[in-house]
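Table S2 (text version). Query chain:
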Amino acid sequence: MDWVRETGGYGGAVVVKVNEIVCADPACPGFETIILVMAPGARTVASKIAKPLTDVTHEDVITAISAAS
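Corresponding structure-token output:
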């Protein structure tokens, strides 16, 4: 979550959630990391990283947040 806040420049009013889920779609890699950014008065932005949370790097977060902007 710290990487997400740092990368996006999100302050304390923005809710950031990071979760690892098992993707049931056969095309998925199995586990994926989901990032949700919920800013007051704005739509929720979701980003996916196709790897387990423990394998996510700072560069992965930068790429995911940049793509969602």
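Notes on Table S2: The chain has a mean pLDDT of 92. Strands lie at 15-22, 31-38, 45-49.
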